[in-house]
Amino acid sequence: MRIPFIAGNWKMNTTVTEAEKLVLEMLDKLDRIEGVEKVLCPPFVSLVAIGMMLQSSSIKLGAQNMYFETEGAYTGEISPLMLRELCEFVILGHSERRWYFRETDEVVNKKVKAALANNLKPILCVGERLEENEAGKTEEIINRQVISALNGLEPVHDLVIAYEPVWAIGTGKAASGEQAAATIQFIRDVLAKLWNKSIAQDLRILYGGSVTSVNIAEFISHLEIDGALVGGASLKAGEFLNIVEKTAEIKARHL
Q1: What's the pLDDT band for 162 if we cut at 50, 70, 90?
Q2: Which of 1, 7, 123, 197 could form a disulfide with 192 if both were Cys (CB 3.0 to 4.6 A apart)?
Q3: Contacts of 175 (CB under 8 A, 6+ apart)
Q4: pLDDT tens digit string along 107-157?
């Protein structure tokens, strides 16, 4: 069975001091929760400090973004070479990067390749916008994003995919469990055609978009959904702990 996966994406929130305080509030309890891979993704400025706090724990560390070149005249960017000494995971292709910073499918593909080449595990985000969803284009958009992001790659085991419908991110309007599960099954079908059925079943695919401790059970109860990429709720220690605990409890019943 695929190991459940919960990642907290803090986005552009918390100073280093605030990040340390947040981790301190949940470190012991979060560390003790078994049966779930737990990842925290703070801003770049906190990676070193949080990494030190997590050193002897079961909690993993991830970055929120990365440039595809290893070094050079790219003022303000962070390279995979810089990240690989600090963390294990990196979020790539998030809708906020695609929309606000105009990252194309081709750029996301370069980032995925660069991450893998530097022993970083990508958390690849895909998802449709509201108008695309209402026009019945969800599968068309998801198919394009997945195939483009993985273009030129042989089957990759060190990869997590997060389905995040753009219309659900930060809006308080989550997809239904049935909607999310159907789209995630579609992603597995795409992976099976692109690579093979075995890896399509092995890779973990998450849901993201207004996930809370109240609705997490609706998603995790579906066998197709392996966890969640949590945004705002990951900034509240008690809320994030509840999400991870409920995930562990529900998935344990399926063993």
Answers
A1: very high
A2: 197
A3: 165, 168, 183, 207, 209
A4: 999 999 999 999 999 999 999 998 898 899 999 999 999 999 999 999 999
* CB-based contacts of 123, cutoff 8 Å, min separation 6: 7, 39, 41, 62, 89, 90, 91, 92, 160, 161, 162, 206, 229
CA atoms within 13 A on the CB side of 237: 15
| CATH code for position 165 | 3.20.20.70
Q: Tokens 């958390």 correspond to what residue?
A: 123
The residues annotated with a catalytic role in the active site are 94, 164
pTM: 0.97
CB 93 within 8 A of CB 101: no
Residue 39 CB partners (closer than 8 Å, separation 6+): 5, 6, 7, 8, 59, 60, 61, 62, 88, 89, 123
Structure tokens at 43: 């801003």
User: Among 29-33, 167-171, 218-222, where is mean pLDDT lowest?
Assistant: 167-171
Number of domains in the chain: 1
**CA atoms of 171 and 166, how far apart (whole Å):** 9
